[in-house]
Amino acid sequence: MRISMAVAALAAAVVLVQPAQAQKKGKAAAAPAPAGPSMAAPASLAGRWVGTYTSDVSSKSGSFVLVLNGSDESASGQLQLTPTGGRTVGPEGTAEAAAPAAKGKKAAPAPASSGLAVSASKSGDDKVTGSVDASYVDPGCNCSVVSTFEGELNGNTLVGTISARDARTGQWNLSSFTATKGGAAKR
User: Fold this and answer.
1) Rounded Cα–Cα distance for residues 139 and 82 (Å)
2) Which helix (H) or strand (E) holds 15?
């Protein structure tokens, strides 16, 4: 990706230099080349992403913070996933993975959590795919799930779908999400 941008920048420099040199030799300047697509800087995957998620099927929603370290094309990091009115979700077997509060009772404040380990990659067309590296207890079903996500990166906005599969039944649940890099959650 960086090589192709360097080649495009070099080609643009050559197009700009040729007419100026033609004028120095007393020749008429060649017509300028038609403007090509904008060569905006590639959107970086690494960074702090803040967002919300919702599921039309289960009516579940919540917020998340995704911190990714790495390059423009691949990164790994931590996901802090907090269901509305619930505790921050942690990997299976941790205190964060404790069952949600009983019906009618308010959940205790979420303990400090490093979150769920994630890895993600971005293709040349700004499509993002990733996964949560370990299973976790989904508070909506109180079951062990594994999750993947995919979306599209557009500047400082990431929009996509989270797919969670119940480890017992194999049933999938899809949620949509929107995140903003470095900013507040979008609603």
Assistant:
1) 10
2) helix 2-24
Let me know whether 69 and 30 are in one domain.
no
> Residue 128 contacts by C-beta under 8 Å, 6 or more apart in sequence?
45, 120, 121, 122, 149, 150, 151, 152, 153, 158, 160
150/74 same-domain check: yes
Residue 41, token pair as written in the block: 């800087």
Q: Are residue 21 and residue 110 in the same domain, yes or no? A: no
> What are 38-65's pLDDT values in tens digits?
445 557 889 999 999 998 777 789 999 9
Instruction: Evaluate whether residue 187 is within a structural domain.
Output: no
- Indicate the Cα dihedral angle 166, 58, 102, 92, nearest 10°: 30
**DSSP for residue 133:** S
Pairing assessment for the beta strands 136-138 and 143-154 based on DSSP bridges: antiparallel
Round to whole Å and give the CA distance between 77 and 73.
14
Convert the pLDDT of each residue in 114-137 to its tens digit: 789 999 999 988 999 999 999 998
Q: How many domains does the chain have?
A: 2
pTM above 0.70? no
List residues bridging with 128 in a β-sheet.
122, 151
The residue type of 112 is: A
Tell me the one-letter amino acid at 65: V
Is 139 inside a domain boundary?
yes
Question: Is there a domain that residue 81 lies in?
Answer: yes
